[in-house]
Amino acid sequence: MNGKQKKVLIIVAFVILGMLLYPPFHQIFKAGQVIGLGYGWIFEAPSYATIDIGVLITQWIGVLIVGAIAFFMLKD
Q: Which is nearest to 58 in space by CA: 7, 23, 14?
């Protein structure tokens, strides 16, 4: 692993951590209606909202795919 690959790994780790600290929120009503509430600081989440896990995992997978492509492209 060279220096550029280490930088890619560090950047990917910080982006994923940032997504964890600033996740997407949504609210689900009794009738099954889902309303996206955008993104917010995890420690100041609205009491009526929950984290939209599907969107968060999708974002993580996207970052991991792009990071893996960059990692292998920077191989010596």
A: 23
Task: Please write the tens of the pLDDT for every residue from 3-32.
Answer: 999 999 999 999 999 999 999 999 998 888
39 touches 22 (CB < 8 A):
yes
Residues 18 and 3: beta-carbon distance below 8 Å: no
**Cβ neighbour number for residue 33 with a 10 Å cutoff:** 8
Distance (Å, whole) CA 47 – CA 38: 14
Evaluate if pTM is beyond 0.90.
no
Domain ranges of the chain: 3-73
